[in-house]
Amino acid sequence: MAVYFRDVSISFGDCDALGIVYYPNYFRWMDGTFHAFLHDRDQGHTVMCRELGTLGFGLMDADLAFRSPAREGDLLRYWIEGIEWSARSFQITYRATLGDRLVLEGHERRGFFVERDGRIAAGDVGPLRDRLG
Amino acid sequence: MAVYFRDVSISFGDCDALGIVYYPNYFRWMDGTFHAFLHDRDQGHTVMCRELGTLGFGLMDADLAFRSPAREGDLLRYWIEGIEWSARSFQITYRATLGDRLVLEGHERRGFFVERDGRIAAGDVGPLRDRLG
Amino acid sequence: MAVYFRDVSISFGDCDALGIVYYPNYFRWMDGTFHAFLHDRDQGHTVMCRELGTLGFGLMDADLAFRSPAREGDLLRYWIEGIEWSARSFQITYRATLGDRLVLEGHERRGFFVERDGRIAAGDVGPLRDRLG
Amino acid sequence: MAVYFRDVSISFGDCDALGIVYYPNYFRWMDGTFHAFLHDRDQGHTVMCRELGTLGFGLMDADLAFRSPAREGDLLRYWIEGIEWSARSFQITYRATLGDRLVLEGHERRGFFVERDGRIAAGDVGPLRDRLG
Known about the structure:
homotetramer, alpha+beta, 5-stranded antiparallel beta sheet, two-stranded antiparallel ribbon, 3 helices, about 40% strand, elongated
């Protein structure tokens, strides 16, 4: 059972010379879905980072498999299927559909970025897990 | 009296190192507002271009004045204030607001692009004017 | 006589369904040309802002007139034609060419953003003018 | 031994509110590296597609692991490490470095898109393999 969804309206400028979505945009909308989810469940990235003392919930890796094309005028639904929590990272599973048709599926693995000795390091994700439940 | 509006939700990835919107995105959303308007009033760019025998309703010039900043989590309302029609181009006036606050104002001048002798040229915009009236 | 130039290689993903550059990218490259110029003449935006005590050299307005199209594989040359300095802003004039052909011309007006009473305000651009000569 | 490399100069506008590269840009540059490679080894995507009778060498899946951050002013080197050919797809392995430091590693799997019964399908990649050797 999906955790969250939001709709993305595909515009002319999101498409390439073939008239289908230029693929890095799919990653941009995946990231945007995560941030919309933070606003839906809590107070959004900016406020949450300030309260939790983190630089950001940044990316460790990301992948997408493109199952069918989407075009100008399509209304794409991005789903968060679930989140798996580890000690220093969490993995979010996504899917996007156009009506009944699967358009893509993929993941983001994110960390809880803190500054340590002037460098960005991955901290304990527990405090975020407690808030997103 | 405004002709049309649509809302744009500002995401983390739209902002720069100052935490405010990176300005080329404002142009992307201005273009997206025009394309959403084509879907609202008619059948959208792809179908309309096919029916009208044009390559696209492309840009001749574009300008924006940035009146106040917008940030992650803001819901920006883009307004089409009006359209002025000439023989071979039309100018669209835009404004974007955040509640009562003005964020930007600007214009796009667009043509009706046709292929002539293997080159892109500006055709008569009359057929589009008749449909968007 | 132009002040500075840099070359931009147009990639597949920069182009729209007509196979020509999607116009907000032209603004992105105009901004990128300004930042490359800051690295060429001085130490770049990040270091300069820290030294000058500013948030950034942000945008007040921007405009472009598109004179001819550019496509995948083209090497576009962006020129800074000149900079005009006022008390609280400066205007940069740009042009981009493809060999002998003019592709676009336009401007950015930028300010020297400082924080005042928790808001972003435009400060005196003199210290930047002294450095960029 | 790497097959190809090209340099990407990271600009202010490529970075997010943390001052590090916004991750979908890394996918955009990975795609741009593939297209630059097509120009380096052959005639580029537009001409090659016309000659080979394909719509494009489109994406089936893409992944990146982010090993360390990159910032404004950095010069990132994208490497194509190798290409593995199957019957109906090929996988390209990438790496990006900042001097000696690894910034990211990942893959693109691409197909040879043809139109079949009005839909996009994956054709035999042999003709492309013959040209890229």
